[in-house]
Amino acid sequence: MGSCGFVGVQHAMPYGGLRHLLPKDIICNISKTNLFTLATICIFEPKRKIAMRIKSLLNSKKVIAGDGVHLRELVNAHNDPGFSGRYSLAEAILPVGLSSTPHRLHTSELYFVISGRAMMHIDDEVEELKSGDAVEIPPNAVQWVDNREGSEPFVFLCIVDPAWRAEDEEIL
Predict the structure, then answer these.
(1) Which residue spans within 13-153 are E strands per DSSP?
(2) 82 pLDDT band (50/70/90 cuts)?
(3) Confidence of residue 99 (pLDDT cuts 50, 70, 90)
(4) Are 27 and 4 in contact (CB under 8 A)?
(5) Domain coordinates of the chain in residue numbers?
(6) Which of 9, 51, 124, 131 sits at 20 to 30 Å (Cα–Cα) from 2?
(7) Does the CA dihedral 78-82-88-91 come out positive or negative?
């Protein structure tokens, strides 16, 4: 008997068997004489258990960010000890008639538009964003969103990688 991952299971079941059912991160004890026991151990004894974590936007604190956007942060690798990712995720709302303040992040950012239409400015480029659009904002690019001509709030998700920190943002 010894411990094995996916490779060991292939050797224990050379003709196919159940190896296609076993994830690569499973650890199990090999028994060359009892394949039923092997399959049972491998399927029901995973190496680690991952707990599902759900966070509600309704429980996230509303703030007005340095660029003037209304923000609710869901997760941030820097201040959420249970979060295993390296990014941050926030909902942003830019009310009708306003534009955000030009700023830059020293990290990568991605916006995904939930609702509304607004003009996205990245360095010297300007494009309209609408519901369902995503835009990548490279590190150190000057960026801002203009909803002065909009007819509804501009609602979008912000993903920052690595996670947002105040010292990585420069308001211009």
Answers:
(1) 28-29, 62-64, 70-76, 88-94, 103-105, 108-115, 117-122, 125-130, 134-137, 143-146
(2) confident
(3) very high
(4) yes
(5) 3-44, 57-171
(6) 51
(7) negative
- The predicted-structure confidence for 52-80, as pLDDT tens digits, reads as follows 888 899 999 999 999 999 999 999 999 88
Which residues, in sequence order, are bridge partners of residue 121?
Answer: 126, 144
Which tokens belong to 159? 């993903």
For residues 152 and 98, the answer to whether their CB atoms sit within 8 Å is no
CB 126 within 8 A of CB 99: no
* Options 2.60.40.10, 2.60.120.10, 1.10.3720.10, 3.40.50.300; CATH of 57-171: 2.60.120.10
84 contact partners, CB below 8 Å, separation of at least 6: none
**What sign for the dihedral angle of Cα 6, 8, 12, 13?**
positive
Q: Is the pTM of this model over 0.85?
A: no
* Token duo for residue 93: 């709302």
Write out the E strands in the chain.
Answer: 3-4, 28-29, 62-64, 70-76, 88-94, 103-105, 108-115, 117-122, 125-130, 134-137, 143-146, 154-161, 169-171
Return all residues near 81 (Cβ < 8 A) that are at least 6 apart.
Answer: none
